[in-house]
C-alpha cells in the first residue's frame, strides 16, 4: 500500500465538532484465516459467531466462482464509482484539492457541504465519529462478510527541519507522550476482543521522534507508555493485537528495536501474538530484517507478529533504499509472505514452538492470490503442520480494493474470514485535500 507523504493529521479540522478521541480513530479491511490448532479460533475473534473458521482438510465440492463485488450493495458500489471517478481525474482531483484546502472551514461548518462530505468521502473511508456510528459500521460490514474493525489512533507527527531536542521542554514532552498513550489506550477500549489496533510511534510527539531519528535512548515515560499500551491490550482477556506501523526509513531502526523489545515481553506462549512489527518490502533491507527477526523469535522463544506491506513513504524515503523497480518490490513482498507462511514454527507454542501472527496487507490481487494458493497447498501438506500455531490475516484499506477483499471472502479456500475497516482519519476534509495534492 502506498501513501502520499507530507500528510499532517495534527492540525486538520474535524468533520464533526466532537472533541473526543473518536475523530482520530480509523479502520482497515481485514480477512483472517486460522488453523484449527491455533491458540485462538476465528470463532473467538471479532464476533461471537459459532461458525467454524478452521481450514478443512477435505476437498471442497467445486462451485461456480462468485464475482468478487456481486455481494456488495449497489448504493455502495455507486458511491465507489463516484469517488474513484473524482480521484482519478486530474481535472476533478485538482479542483477538489483546491476547494478542500482553501475552504476547509466553510466546508466543515456549513450544513449542506457537511452533509455531502459525510455521506460520500467520510462514510466511505471512516468508521464513525461516535461509538454508535462505529457499531453501525461494524454491523454493516459483518453483513457483507467482514467481521470486525481495525481501529487506529491516527496522530502522526512531522518534525520541522530546524527543531532540536533542546527546543522542547520537559513539560511538552510529558504532555505529548501522555496524550498519545491515553488516546491509544482509549482506542483499545473501543476495540472488540481479539481485534486489531494500529499504533504509530511518532504520535508520541516531536521529542520522541527526534530520539527515533538518532536512535538515542527514549524518555522513561515513553517506555512506560508502551508498557501501559500493551497491558491495556491484554487486560481482562481482551487480547487486542497491536500493529505497530512502519514509518519513514530514518526512524525505522529505532522502531524495530522498540517492537522487538515489546514482543519479547508480551508475545507469551499462552496466546497468539499481541505485538506486531510492520515490514515495508520496497526497502532492500526488509527481507533480511524479516528473516533475522523471525529467527530471533524462534531461538529466544517469543511469539512473532508481522504485518507485511509494500511501502508507504515512497515520496519521502531515500530512493537508494528501494528496489530498482516494481518487480523487485513484488518479489520481495511475495517472498516475505512465503517465508512467513512456510516458516517451521514447530507447530506453535502448544507443541513447544512459537506462535506466529501474519498480516498480509496488500491491494495487489496477484500477491493475495499467491498467498491464498500457498495456504491451499500448505493445509494439505503433512496435514497442515506448517500452519499450526499461525494466525493469517488479509488486510486492505477501507473504501479501497474491495474486489481483493471480497475475492478472499468468497474463496472456497478461505477457511473462514474476518473482515474489518480501517478508515482514514475522520478529519477527512483536510486529510483528503492533502492526500490528493
Automatic annotation (TrEMBL):
GO cellular component: mitochondrion
UniProtKB keywords: FAD, Flavoprotein, Oxidoreductase, Proline metabolism
Coiled-coil portions: none
Record bears the keyword Protease: no
Reactions catalysed: L-proline + a quinone = (S)-1-pyrroline-5-carboxylate + a quinol + H(+)
Compositionally biased region (Low complexity): 41-61
Uppermost EC category: oxidoreductase
Region of interest: Disordered: 35-69
Entry's Gene Ontology BP terms: L-proline catabolic process to L-glutamate
Transmembrane segments: none
Entry's EC annotation: 1.5.5.2
GO MF annotation, one: proline dehydrogenase activity
InterPro entries: FAD-linked_oxidoreductase-like (IPR029041), Proline_DH_dom (IPR002872), Proline_oxidase (IPR015659)
Domain Proline dehydrogenase: 136-421
Domain of life: Eukaryota
SUPFAM superfamilies: FAD-linked oxidoreductase (SSF51730)
Cofactor dependency: FAD
UniProt similarity note: Belongs to the proline oxidase family.
Function: Converts proline to delta-1-pyrroline-5-carboxylate.
Protein name: Proline dehydrogenase
Gene: PUT1
